[in-house]
Write a structure and sequence with these properties.
Radius of gyration: 22 Å
Number of strands: 11
Helix content: 25-40%
Oligomer: single chain
């Protein structure tokens, strides 16, 4: 197996991100496979200073060590998407030449309107339909001098069937999906495009990521099909929820791993607690305290829950108290 954890350096490590990284680590260790760290920094406007360094530091603190990444020599780099623009260009040109994508040419004013929200994404998609039928040599020449974005052409009157290792069989109606932008006006790829290209070129066999990416699957599957590639196996983890069953957010409390460290939660209790957010080893065992090695040995994707899971701070408090009681006195005082 080759798995990856691919955070965006737009903030510090979220507890949901820690869970995703842990589950990837568990499967990589079980299969004696490889775990890759890839930094997805294509959204240049949202980058946070020192976020990448913080992410790498926190993942190392958690005991999540990578076999390849921006901080480790590997055969499939570069491992930052901002350093892979020439790679993406090769493949978006290929999609245009095969008729699976098309460039849309924008004036400076139109780009400004899009940025300012004066032109909605849906309206822009409808207007851009005029670019779908094109003369290849003309548009390739035009792309050398004019502003453009590139859209993936979504087939109409069709469905995509998809099997998720957690969610099961899912069907998507492509009539409900607009042609998505895959290359932005600044030359950077969108998440959907870069993600597919990188996963294929890095030989990723299994993708474990949050449920929020599930609606993007049709676009990703279509990209794989358009390039005649086989997609990896996907697993979409259930959402983390507040006690009122809304999506876990900073508005209702802490969400970053560092927040909990600053409040005195111990590393082992945080990892133990996060591993159980949406997963349980099953069986008749009532055991709830596990070390990292035990979690690696016990974890299976088929025991991950399909529905969202409550982030129960009282459960974390109880678990942390167990770990505190087991500390040696000198470490407790420290």
């Amino acid at each position: 197996m080759r798995l990856r954890f691919a955070p965006s350096p737009t903030g510090y490590l979220h507890v949901g991100g820690l869970r995703t990284a842990l589950y990837n680590l568990f499967l990589a260790k079980q299969s004696k496979g490889k775990l890759i760290l890839r930094i997805e920094d294509t959204d240049q406007n949202r980058l946070v200073k020192n976020a990448e360094e913080n992410l790498i530091s926190m993942l190392s603190w958690a005991g999540i060590n990578f076999d390849e990444g921006p901080h480790i020599t590997g055969d499939y780099g570069p491992y930052r998407q901002s350093e892979r623009l020439t790679i993406y260009k090769e493949y978006y040109l290929k999609l245009i030449k095969t008729g699976h994508a098309y460039p849309c040419f924008y004036s400076e004013q139109r780009l400004e309107d899009l940025e300012a929200g004066k032109l909605s994404s849906e309206d822009a998609t409808i207007e851009d339909a005029v670019f779908q039928d094109f003369n290849l040599s003309d548009v390739l020449k035009k792309m050398e001098t004019e502003n453009f974005v590139v859209r993936l052409k979504i087939p109409s009157n069709d469905f995509i069937h998809f099997d998720d290792l957690i969610k099961g069989s899912i069907k998507f109606d492509l009539n409900l999906i607009n042609d998505p932008i895959i290359i932005k006006s600044d030359g950077f790829p969108t998440y959907h495009f870069a993600n597919v290209i990188d996963d294929h070129l890095m030989n990723i066999t299994h993708v474990i990521r949050g449920e929020e990416w599930l609606p993007s699957i049709p676009k990703h599957i279509l990209l794989y099909q358009s390039l005649n590639w086989s997609p990896p196996l996907f697993s979409h983890l259930p959402l983390l929820l507040n006690t009122d069953k809304t999506k876990l957010s900073k508005r209702q409390g802490d969400v970053h791993v560092e927040d909990f460290l600053k409040k005195g939660y111990l590393k082992d209790s945080i990892i133990n607690f996060v591993a159980f957010l949406g997963w349980h080893p099953g069986g008749d065992s009532k055991q709830e305290i596990y070390n990292m090695e035990e979690l690696i040995n016990l974890f299976t994707i088929d025991r991950v829950h399909k529905s969202g899971c409550i982030f129960d701070i009282e459960k974390l408090n109880w678990m942390n108290s167990i770990y505190i009681k087991e500390l040696e006195l000198k470490n407790f005082i420290k």
